Amino acid sequence: MDLAVHLGLIRTVPDEGGGGRRVLRSEIERMSSEAGFPDALRERVKVAGTTQGADLMHVSAGRFTRLARLGLVVPVKWYLNRYRAVVWLYRAEELKQVAADENNAPLLKARRMPEALRAMLDTGVDLRPRNWRGRHRGFLLRLAEDPWESAGALAAFLDPVHIAEIVPDPYERSHLNRFRPGPPTSGAPGSPSAHLAERLMTADDPDEISLLRADLTAALEEARDRRPAPRPATRRVPTPAHPAPPGPARPEDLEPPRGLLSRLRRRARGGAC
């Protein structure tokens, strides 16, 4: 179900109670009325790892990995195994389409890959993380309901240093971070798995970073125009009024005090006379 939502095969709406997203009854009825449901839907979301993917494309596992590193096949999701190694998963339906495309025959059937591609592999190129980020970014942008959510979806793939450069205002940056989703798979905060998930989520190619920065800048301009980030209310300290100058003494102010101590003093003065 989650993968079907990610791929846009099932439409969801925000839960009015704030509990995430939900599927409307009308959407369930739409899916149920489609031919071949639910087997057809299961087939569309079926995934394959390296070994299964190689079998579907009739190539060796080694060649499949090289093709994935070059970007011919794009991961749809990933997980960390018990050794904290990244396991990439691919849509089986897409792998079959790639294998059936005659234009890909030289890459799939030739004994050796073209020299230019081998040179790229020798330099360590691996487009799997970037291609997965592009796919996941598309999913997050599809879910965005307003410009701030779109900006948060783009910011999710940038390092906090880049975000601080683009959004120097701390109040605006704090507001943006409310809409910045984390990695889809991670362990406990601060764990090695969480750090690895964050690294996979963060763009590291200069070209990718440049495009994300430009897109985020444009999204923020639209968000500011639509609804500026909230700021704390400014507290105005009241200015103390100037004290009024003392006026002439009133008659009642000139009368001697009528307390007990005053009466004793008057008696003492009378006895001394």
From TrEMBL:
<feature type="compositionally biased region" description="Pro residues">
    <location>
        <begin position="240"/>
        <end position="249"/>
    </location>
</feature>
<feature type="region of interest" description="Disordered">
    <location>
        <begin position="174"/>
        <end position="194"/>
    </location>
</feature>
<feature type="compositionally biased region" description="Basic residues">
    <location>
        <begin position="263"/>
        <end position="273"/>
    </location>
</feature>
<feature type="region of interest" description="Disordered">
    <location>
        <begin position="221"/>
        <end position="273"/>
    </location>
</feature>
<dbReference type="Pfam" id="PF19934">
    <property type="entry name" value="DUF6397"/>
</dbReference>
<protein>
    <submittedName>
        <fullName>Uncharacterized protein</fullName>
    </submittedName>
</protein>
<dbReference type="InterPro" id="IPR045652">
    <property type="entry name" value="DUF6397"/>
</dbReference>
